[in-house]
Amino acid sequence: MTCFPVPGFHYTDGALHAEGVALSAIAAAVGTPTYVYTTEGLTAAWRAYADAFAGQDVTICYALKANSNLAVIRTLAQLGAGGDVVSVGEMRRALAAGIPADKIVFSGVGKTRDELVAALKAGIHQINVESLPELEVLSAVAVELGVDAPIAIRINPDVDAETHGKIATGRKEDKFGIDFAHAGEAYARAMALPGINPVGIAVHIGSQLLKTTPFRKAFGKLAELVRDLKAHGVPLSRIDLGGGLGVPYKPEDQAPDYPAYAKAIAETVGGLGCHVTLEPGRSLVAAAGLLLTRTIFVKEGLHRRFLIVDAAMNDLVRPAMYEAWHTVIPVAQPAADAVLADADIVGPVCETGDTFARLRPMPPVAPGDLLAFLTAGAYGAAMSSTYNSRPLVAEVLVSGAKFEVVRRRPSFEDSLTLEQMPDWLSP
Ligand SMILES: Cc1ncc(COP(=O)(O)O)c(C=O)c1O
Ligand SMILES: N[C@@H](CCCC[NH3+])C(=O)O
Questions:
Q1: Structure confidence by residue, pLDDT tens digits, 134-152
Q2: For the CA of 204, the nearest atom of ligand 2
Q3: Would the pTM of this model clear 0.90, i.e. be above it?
Q4: Which of 18, 203, 297, 350 lies in the 20 to 30 Å Cα band around 148?
């Protein structure tokens, strides 16, 4: 899978379409900036997992943090996905979108007592515990509620995921999980505590991994640990291998090899008699979404040509936050012989970091032209904000020739509803 074309997005009759819908029609109806997701893209991403793991006993819990739009979650839930959640808000979204409680895993380094109470009351499949203090609080809460908490302990395997430093999570200096060396101690405590049922073990080494080698390394270490723990009487029956499989963002990026990933899992943890859970986020939703934006101005500077668009870092923060690349293409298909010229593609926010691309070879673009930022379905809308008092970006889901606004753009009045003026400032 390269970043374009991908299932769901294509040029037809010189115009970029999402399935059977012209993106210009969505822009006319909904305005810009708007995220557009395709059912076809979501389904294709799901199928890649289903095909790779056919015949293996694997549950796929979609990591809602990548895109927590209810319609996106429900589309994946209807294909068979469970959910991986990291807050009570995500847990409630998963339930509201139709994911049954017994297919929900709760991850995260800092769950509050209230969140643990909510998770136990909802009767979810598993809580992935990341520290001894969390284990103690969970035990107390479970005893209070009169239930047993099914848990996995997240282990930090000290493996470099070979990804961007800000999204690597499995090195010893990272905040996630319990050190490999303290795993035995953690399980001994879990076995001794009332209300704790230590059924599983978990690992997640990072995000946007394009190679299988770091996974193989981490899963191999985990397998050794599982054998050792089982030999010491820990009743492990579940292994949660997290998410992390990447997607090609740049045309030259090599798409991850799903069969090799499935093989790495089978060959490392396959023979342990444990049920395997995966928590993919990005790889299920990234390619299924694009950010549709309109060019406001074209500014010819002395040193640069700037395409100033109506999307900004508050709508898609990945380039500002991780120097991430998103391929940008015009909605009107450029002529085959169009001459490319370098441009900086920037948003209106008052930060130099509000730059989506520097010196990007682009075909001719005029004010008013629509552009699409590809591979934006993951960590796009989910990380959007209202910085500079810009309304939250709208989201649209397409299915065949139909499209629907699945999150509307808030009005200015909506944006004021959470604020109030103290009496002493009344005129
Ligand atoms: C515990 C956990 N599971 C799953 C994911 C999903 O990762 P990705 O979107 O890279 O598949 C993350 C985010 O990196 C995570 O922290
Ligand atoms: N937000 C990151 C991924 C973080 C993964 C969460 N653990 C991105 O956009 O690439």
A1: 999 999 999 999 999 999 9
A2: 7
A3: yes
A4: 203
